[in-house]
UniProtKB/TrEMBL annotation:
PROSITE patterns: EF_HAND_1, EF_HAND_2. This is EF-hand domain-containing protein. InterPro entries: CML21-like, EF-hand-dom_pair, EF_Hand_1_Ca_BS, EF_hand_dom. Residues 77-112, 167-202, 205-240 form the EF-hand domain. It holds the Pfam family EF-hand_7. Residues 1-22 form the signal peptide. GO terms for molecular function: calcium ion binding. Keywords: Calcium, Signal.
């Protein structure tokens, strides 16, 4: 795709008479990844700013990696409650939330966004790039909305469960801040290595273990882990799987 864009820009395809419509389609295909990266960077910057403000205004929740590991069962219980919320917004019950369902969801949460902003959020939270927001990605979405727009979001999700959702989201965000030592919204491999070895002065965690842990979180393989990647990974580690996941894994070794 980049090669095609390059040849179009430098005029190396002079011998081919491209229809105007086809040229427009190719130009759109070339600019779409750029637009996506720009929108993702904008959202990453907003999340990073919210994380910095949170770090200044709150005391640390976690002091060791083990203290985070011990909370995984609680995270799983909280995620179980969110599954019921996901089912409510998945209006056609197909296991994913599409663009229209997302806009309906944001409207019910009273999150004020333009159509373009809603589209950007949809693409941003579609971590696996499958075109719809699945349950794990829905948790990422709610947690990000909670961080950016405050606790009223969870109250509108469920008045009855809002306190529990606040607790889960607070601890998930604080777990990320435990690793994000620079406070820039990007966790580096050195941050994970340092934190994994802080509690023990005698026995260090093997380097291949920290490398594998970081690799599992670095979903886009850019050498940094942002909050959405961390949340997505924590959900997997907490052991919460939807029925669709269970069915798809039945044949796995």
């Amino acid at each position: 795709m980049l090669g095609l864009c390059f040849f179009l820009l430098v005029g190396q395809l002079k011998l081919v008479r491209w229809p105007v419509a086809a040229m427009g389609m190719v130009a759109s295909m070339c600019t779409e990844p750029i637009k996506r990266r720009r929108a993702e960077k904008d959202l990453d910057d907003k999340v990073a700013a919210a994380l910095r403000e949170r770090a200044r205004s709150r005391q640390r929740t976690f002091r060791t990696v083990n203290s985070i590991t011990m909370r995984l069962p609680r995270f799983k219980d909280g995620l179980r409650d969110i599954k019921d919320v996901f089912d409510q917004y998945d209006e056609d019950s197909n296991g994913t939330i599409d663009n229209d369902e997302l806009r309906s969801c944001l409207g019910k949460l009273q999150v004020q966004m333009s159509d373009k902003e809603a589209d950007d959020v949809h693409r941003y939270c579609d971590v696996d790039r499958r075109g719809g927001i699945q349950f794990q990605e829905f948790v990422v979405l709610l947690c990000l909305m909670y961080l950016l727009f405050g606790p009223d979001v969870t109250r509108r999700v469920s008045e009855f469960e809002s306190a529990k959702l606040n607790y889960v989201f607070d601890e998930l965000i604080d777990a990320f801040l435990f690793f994000d030592k620079d406070g820039d919204g990007k966790m580096k491999r050195k941050d994970v290595t340092r934190r994994m070895n802080e509690a023990s002065h005698q026995e260090r965690t093997p380097s291949h273990t920290t490398a594998q842990l970081f690799k599992e979180m670095d979903l886009n393989r850019n050498g940094k882990v942002n909050l959405k990647e961390f949340l997505y990974s924590i959900i997997r580690w907490a052991g919460h799987e939807t029925e669709d996941d269970d069915a798809s894994n039945e044949g796995s070794p």
